[in-house]
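[Meeting: bench + compute handoff]

Bench side (C.D.) handed over the final construct sequence. Compute side (W.E.) agreed to return the predicted structure before the next meeting so the bench team could plan truncations. Sequence as handed over:
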Amino acid sequence: MVANVEKQLEEARELLEQMELEVREIPPQSRGMYSSRMRSYKQEMGKLEADFKRSRIAYSDEVRNELLGDDGNSSENQRAHLLDNTERLERSSRRLEAGYQIAVETEQIGQEMLENLSHDREKIQRARERLRETDANLGKSSRILTGMLRRIIQNRILIVILAVIIIFTTMMAIYFSVRGR
């Protein structure tokens, strides 16, 4: 049972380390919430380890006293201590299991957040590409409109020149026809 609890403690420590690495990669605006959760998980882990250590020391002291034949306490008292230590060890195991479950859930939440961020990044990249294409199309449109505007201005200047020539020619024709009579 002690080996099982030690194994679970080690797994929980590793999960906490992995979660801490994941939290460091989260954007700063949502990192605070997860950092506070990590602190509380670490505190809970410290409490569990301390409880386990106390239970283990108490158990080893009782085993040593039993092996050395220290009969200062009655067997009833020893049995009560053993049961108390076993109960503490079981409580610590349950806490460790709960901490492990929380760590697994947090890891899943972190994984989901990373997936969401990845999807959002892809959307932003697609939007940027569309924006670049639109910008290129606007540039082409601007060049075409500038060319059309130049042609319109040229056509108007030609019309004005032709109008002046026609008016001048008409006036000259009138002048020569009036003078010739």
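W.E. noted at the follow-up: The mean pLDDT is 85. C.D. will use this when planning the next construct.
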